[in-house]
């Protein structure tokens, strides 16, 4: 039996309304030779309480402080609090863990590779995994996202559905607590590639709602989200040569492109994020 901690961070979402937790509750894990522990980090101010997780099968661990903790800090706390665990699965609150996902883990565990990621779909488009070239990320063509072992060099992905061996944290790779939310995943994969040369792509596709790509939300909220993303880039890419200068011009380009694509000049406000380049 593989011991796996499934980590789900909630914010303003009741556990019984989390698509992730509902999907996790619907399996008989012994059929997949998995011994699960469900860790829920409740970032709501009032807290829903451990009793709100009574519908989950197996062992449950509940965290709540009344504060909206950094995603990076929450992940690190869970890892540091755990012992005798083989694997961690990090999940958003709206991901669906189906039978195919659990089945796909068997081949991954046999590969000897310490990290695996699923393919993630948003509005019919694969948005993860991807690649990073210097300070710029790019989507990979679907035909190149073959299942199995591949190089970790310049490889990045979204965190939801990512499986991580405890050995990775034992080697000193953790989540960068300078980051609040945006970029936590990208920085993790960049750091991981400095220690490990291989990564594994699972034979499964998960759907995900990408807030950065959601044009239905109010423009003010879209701008705030993109500014926060751009403000995280100096931390994510601080290992790139001349990253401050490169990001200065890239953020200007990024904000201009957003304003043209979204047909709203207010997205030029994202360029104000260049000030973060001079705060460190």
CATH superfamily of the largest domain: Spore Coat Polysaccharide Biosynthesis Protein SpsA, Chain A
Structural class computed from helices and strand pairing: alpha/beta
- Portion of residues in beta strands equals 15-25%
Q: What is the architecture of the largest domain at the second tier of CATH?
A: Alpha-Beta Complex
Taken in chain order, the helices and strands follow as: EHEEHEHEEEEEEEHHEHH
Report mean pLDDT, rounded to a whole number: 92
Q: What spatial form do the alpha-carbon principal axes imply?
A: globular
Q: Nearest-angstrom radius of gyration?
A: 19 Å
Largest sheet: 9 strands, mixed
Name the helicity range: 25-40%
Number of distinct helices: 7
Overall number of domains = 2
What is the CATH third-level topology name of the largest domain? Answer: Spore Coat Polysaccharide Biosynthesis Protein SpsA, Chain A
Distance between the termini: 46 Å
The CATH class of the largest domain, by name, is Alpha Beta
Describe the oligomeric state of these chains in a short phrase: single chain
Number of strands: 12
Low-pLDDT stretches:
none
């Amino acid at each position: 039996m593989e011991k796996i901690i499934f980590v789900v961070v909630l914010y303003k979402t009741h556990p019984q309304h989390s698509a992730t937790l509902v999907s996790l509750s619907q399996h008989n894990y012994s059929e997949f030779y998995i011994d699960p522990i469900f860790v829920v980090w409740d970032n709501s101010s009032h807290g829903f309480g451990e009793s709100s997780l009574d519908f989950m099968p197996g062992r449950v661990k509940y965290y709540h402080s009344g504060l909206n903790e950094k995603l990076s800090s929450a992940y690190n706390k869970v890892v540091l609090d755990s012992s005798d665990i083989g694997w961690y699965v990090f999940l958003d609150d709206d991901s669906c863990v189906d039978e195919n996902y659990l089945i796909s883990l068997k081949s991954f565990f046999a590969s000897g590779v310490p990290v695996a990621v699923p393919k993630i779909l948003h509005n019919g488009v694969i948005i993860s995994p991807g690649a990073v070239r210097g300070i710029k990320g790019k989507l990979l063509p679907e035909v190149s996202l073959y299942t199995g072992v591949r190089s970790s060099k310049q490889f990045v992905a979204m965190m939801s559905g990512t499986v991580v061996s405890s050995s990775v944290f034992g080697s000193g790779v953790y989540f960068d607590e300078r980051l609040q939310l945006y970029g936590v995943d990208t920085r993790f994969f960049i750091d991981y590639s400095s220690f490990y040369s291989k990564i594994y792509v699972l034979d499964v596709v998960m759907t995900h709602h990408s807030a950065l790509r959601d044009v239905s939300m109010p423009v003010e909220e879209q701008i705030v989200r993109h500014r926060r993303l751009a403000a995280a880039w100096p931390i994510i890419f601080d290992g790139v040569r001349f990253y401050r200068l490169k990001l200065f011009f890239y953020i200007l380009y990024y904000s201009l492109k957003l304003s043209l694509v979204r047909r709203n000049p207010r997205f030029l406000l994202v360029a104000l994020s260049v000030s973060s380049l001079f705060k460190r």
